[in-house]
Write a structure and sequence with these properties.
Blueprint (H helix, E strand, L loop, with lengths): L3 H10 L3 E5 L6 H9 L3 E6 L8 H9 L2 E4 L11 E3 L9 H8 L3 E3 L1 H8 L4 E5 L4 H14 L4 E5 L17 E5 L2 H4 L8 E4 L13 H13 L6 E5 L3 H6 L6 E6 L7 E4 L2 E6 L2 E7 L8 H13 L6 H10 L8 E6 L2 E5 L6 H8 L6 E5 L11 H8 E6 L4 H9 L10 E4 L3 H11 L5 E4 L12 H13 L2
Helix pairs in contact: 2-3, 6-10, 6-11, 12-13, 13-14
């Protein structure tokens, strides 16, 4: 099936100079699509030429002109610029291009313009990848054709030719992707909002505004799913144009909520039981919230029996409290996705016993004071590492419930040494948890590389 809107764009772009900023995994299918469509493409990336991988060199052989290395944005000339999600729209190089008349777009913005089927988009500070995946799995179980992508690691613009109006697109959106979006999905989901990515966003207000873009351009009849227990997301309801659906662990009676060990949703007759916590294979109360979020989003689309099927069989997403192995009675879990304090707190609360925690990484300039008391309550030994290790140690020792030596604190700036130190502290029956409360960029390319490196280290113990 030919996507008319996409073909119109490609025809216009054939006569323009296109620049794609960033040649990471997510932008490579975009470059390939543009080249196949007959466009002239300039691929720009900070990575020096000698470190480019074979896939990027293959794009060059296809006709992509490469501009790489430290000065890759200097004196850049282009008619249309595809901004990589991690680049702030206010970047001086982008501002200069705008001043010269360039159109600044993103792969996701063009996808929203071209997509022929309804879109469900999920954003939030924590839980968005699992929630996005759950929504997709529930729709598939109910018999729908689903296209899953976005910030979850798969660009969807190259797939629009395969999409039909009766399909569903389910996308995860980061605050960076949302910052300059001018369209919103049929169903928007905000899991929660807490301080995050303040190393890129100029302040918390900008971060909150970016998240709100997921529903800001909705129409009457669209739906926005919000967390009633989060002050910021609760406030979003006042400016929502679509129908607001709630999920909550604390308040009963509307939307989807947790009552004791049972999840209910509101009906015209009162309430309907959806499942119990025991039905959910994934550990942790945060995953109960993820299920409530997904079920609220899919009201009227998916029947309760399909929710149950997924809950009882879905084993989780890689790097999210992922059991790596059990060695000498010690269980090792990979929660590398936890790049913020709130995410690590959710991980800590998933275990009944006190854990040995490996925490620390790249500094996103966010506060760690909320993490200290949780570490004192749930951790028997803290092993700090990376650029934020000292901040996490300080937050722990300054917590009101801290008792010297409880937890024991070890500082190992190098990641590999931190893993070894955690193993040496562990005894049969213990849990060793990598949940960094920090991004990975101080020592790794991203959280996935960090998580896989952790798993390799654990498997080689």
């Amino acid at each position: 099936m030919t996507n008319v809107i996409l073909q119109e764009y490609l025809e216009i772009w054939k006569h323009k100079r296109l620049a794609v900023l960033g040649l990471g995994v997510s932008n490579r299918p975009l470059v390939r699509l543009l080249l196949t469509g007959g466009c002239r493409v300039l691929g720009c990336d900070r990575t020096p030429r000698e470190k480019l991988d074979e896939e990027v060199l293959e794009l060059e052989r296809m006709g992509c002109e490469l501009r790489v290395g430290e000065g890759y944005l200097d004196n850049l000339e282009a008619d249309v610029v595809f901004r990589t999600p991690g680049m702030h729209p206010g970047n001086p190089a982008l501002e200069l291009l705008r001043a010269k008349g360039a159109e600044i777009v993103s792969e996701m913005e063009i996808f929203f313009r071209c997509c022929p089927c309804p879109i469900i988009a999920v954003t939030g500070s924590d839980g968005k990848t699992t929630t996005t995946t759950l929504i997709a799995e529930m729709l598939k179980t109910a018999g729908y054709m689903v296209h899953l992508g976005g910030n979850i690691g798969r660009p969807l613009l190259p797939d629009v030719e395969e999409m039909l109006p009766e399909h569903w697109a389910v996308v995860e959106l980061s605050s960076f992707q949302l910052m300059d979006m001018t369209r919103s999905p049929r169903i928007a989901v905000v899991t929660n909002v807490a301080p995050n990515h303040l190393d890129v966003h100029k302040d918390m207000a900008e971060y909150i505004s970016a998240k709100a873009n997921v529903f800001r351009f909705q129409k009457t009849g669209d739906v926005v799913v919000l967390n009633r227990d989060n002050d910021i997301t609760r406030g979003f309801a006042d400016s929502a144009s679509g129908t607001v659906r709630w999920f909550s662990r604390q308040e009963r009676g509307s939307g989807v909520w947790l009552e004791g060990e049972t999840i209910y949703r509101a009906t015209a007759q009162g309430k309907e039981k959806l499942m119990t916590r025991e039905d959910i294979l994934l550990p942790g109360i945060h995953n109960v919230e993820n299920y409530m979020t997904a079920m609220a989003a899919l009201e009227g689309l998916v029947a309760p029996e399909h929710f149950l099927t997924v809950a009882r069989n879905f084993g989780g997403v890689e790097h999210r409290i992922e059991l790596v192995r059990e060695l000498d009675g010690i269980r090792f879990y990979n929660d590398s996705i936890a790049s913020s304090p709130t995410r690590t707190i959710a991980g800590l609360r998933s275990f009944r016993e006190k854990v040995i925690l490996i925490a620390g990484g790249y500094d996103k300039q966010i506060p760690y004071d909320v993490l200290g008391p949780e570490i004192c309550a749930h951790v028997k030994c803290l092993v700090t590492t990376g650029a934020t290790g000292e901040k996490i140690r300080k937050a722990t020792e300054e917590a009101e419930n801290y008792i010297p030596g409880q937890p024991e604190i070890l500082c190992e700036p190098e990641f590999d040494r931190a893993v070894t130190a955690a193993y040496k502290q562990a005894k049969p029956g213990d849990v060793v948890l990598l949940s960094p409360a920090s991004a990975a960029f101080d020592q790794f390319k991203n959280f996935m590389v960090r998580g896989r490196h952790f798993k390799d280290l654990v498997r080689n113990l």
